[in-house]
């Protein structure tokens, strides 16, 4: 059915996971896929660069149409396959507003997570400061409180009673943050949300393969 | 016509400018608006916080529907007012793919610009390094070359022959970068693009008021 699609992805990458979930939700099966090892630098290989010249995953192609930015790919799939699978962007103005808002707002959380997780990769050793790490941790903690508040007041999903594009974008982030050891006690609404969404068929079917037999055991974020 | 809309904005902010352009393109006139001074901290006032609890602009409301993230607000306006004004997301799969891709990909340029422009605001003096500023400048220069290449090969607009959502998102960024003194000689395609889009009615009508009688005279980016 989706043999004219190709996805290059890596296990556990939130942007890749979004596209995998969107494909499942839209009931698009049988696409060509290539699971790449970032550690081995496979995302810098010619075949991936041909789709995504930035040498990043996801690298996604439908026919000759390339859409590599994860949110762009999800919006494209929803728009091109409106009547297939589950509707990810509701029609009603109220729900639609909240869906777009939370889907794009999730990039704040993504940036805070990247600032912290990629600090040692992005900043040369001679420039690193413990005070910067502390500030990045505090910024991530504050951002998480905003989302804890949203789910405490609203829910069960981010844009209300139905799973939507907002959850497609957000869930992979909170999944990885909990895997890094975020305190469940201090984030009861995020934890409830995580436990509910993780059993959704599209999410189970796309669970990062290297997570399956490899429990977290990481406590990098436990005091957040 | 759009009396049920409220926009709080500040002059020259790329995210705010996007929403202003989208409202013009969709022919939505007569909305309530409030031009805020960031220098005076007016975006932290109660009236703005009531719409956007992050204390950021744009703060946008349509009836009771709040959509503050700039790209989210633009997508919402396009979706809710499909048949009004100009179409910002083309129907054809090929053009639509490129529109979504470039609109979201522009956030890379936004981040590189923010990393450089906000370095002294975000990083305490004791942690600042000239080497980090140099790296941020190089990252912005490399990102700009990517966009120069897109417009050299394609165009005249970012997603092809028609103005689209990709331009709504991208133009305010290149406008501010050129205002900061980016070399036009080294970026002929970006300059041609800028000169073409700046005269578009929606862009002229929303030109940052504090830019009108205040020519750039800034050369922060001239050697990029």
From TrEMBL, chains A, B:
Q: What is this protein called?
A: Glutathione S-transferase A
Return the GO cellular component terms, semicolon-separated. mitochondrion
Entry's Gene3D superfamilies? 1.20.1050.10, Glutaredoxin (3.40.30.10)
Q: Where is the GST C-terminal domain?
A: 92-224
Q: Offer one example of a GO biological process linked to this entry.
A: glutathione metabolic process
Which GO terms of the molecular function aspect are on file? glutathione transferase activity; maleylacetoacetate isomerase activity
Pfam families reported in the protein's UniProt record: GST_C, GST_N_2
What are the residue boundaries of the GST N-terminal domain, all occurrences included? 3-85
- Top-level lineage group: Eukaryota
Q: Which organism is it from?
A: Chanos chanos (Milkfish)
Q: PROSITE patterns of this UniProt entry?
A: GST_CTER (PS50405), GST_NTER (PS50404)
């Amino acid at each position: 059915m989706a043999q004219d699609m190709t996805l290059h992805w890596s296990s556990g990458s939130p942007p890749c996971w979004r596209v995998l979930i969107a494909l499942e939700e839209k009931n698009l099966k049988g696409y060509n896929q290539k699971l790449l090892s970032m550690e081995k630098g496979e995302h810098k290989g010619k075949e991936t660069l041909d789709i995504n010249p930035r040498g990043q995953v996801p690298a996604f192609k439908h026919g000759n149409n390339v859409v590599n930015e994860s949110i762009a790919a999800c919006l494209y799939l929803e728009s091109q396959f409106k009547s297939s699978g589950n509707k990810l962007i509701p029609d009603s103005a109220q729900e639609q507003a909240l869906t777009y808002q939370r889907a794009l707002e999730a990039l704040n959380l993504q940036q805070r997570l990247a600032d912290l997780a990629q600090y040692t990769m992005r900043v040369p050793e001679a420039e690193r400061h413990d005070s910067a790490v502390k500030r990045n941790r505090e910024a991530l903690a504050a951002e998480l409180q905003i989302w804890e508040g949203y789910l405490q007041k609203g829910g069960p999903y981010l844009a209300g009673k139905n799973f939507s594009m907002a959850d497609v974008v957000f869930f992979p982030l909170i999944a990885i943050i909990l895997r890094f050891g975020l305190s469940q006690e201090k984030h009861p609404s995020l934890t409830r949300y995580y436990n509910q969404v993780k059993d959704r068929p599209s999410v189970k079917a796309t669970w990062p393969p290297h997570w399956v037999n490899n429990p977290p055991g990481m406590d990098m974020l436990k005091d957040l």
